[in-house]
Design goal:
mainly alpha; Double Clp-N motif; 133 residues
Amino acid sequence: MDTEHVLLGILRVAPAPPEMFAQPLSIPWVSEYATRWHTPTTKIPNSVDLPLHADTKAVFDQAMSLADLYRCNLIRTEHLLLALATVANSHSAVILNKAGVSLDRLQAMLPGLPVGEQTGNPVALQYLRDELF
C-alpha cells in the first residue's frame, strides 16, 4: 500500500475543503494521477494483508508524532493529511503539491483540534506503533 492509497481513503471519508488546494482534489483526479506509478490490476481480496511501502510507514509514523505533539489520543485525518503532504518525494506529496496544497493551511488546522480526544484510548498510539512497526 502506497501513500496515494492513504490519500484516497482520506478523501472517501473526509473530502478535502476546496479552499485548501489550488486545484480541486477528488477521488477520480487522484486515481487518474496515481496511474503514473501503478497500473490498475485485478482486485486483491480483502482477506490479504497488503504490504506497506516505506513511505506509507513514514507517513503513519509522522502522523503519530503529530498526534503526540498536539496531545491527541487519536490520529485524525488532519494528522494524516499533513503527514502525507510532508513526507518528501512520496507519491501523495507529489499529488498534493500538484494540487497546490497549502502546508500553512494544513498546519493551521492542528492547533484547533480538541486536546486529548476523550473518546480515544490513551494507549491507542502505542498500540498502533506496535502493530505497524
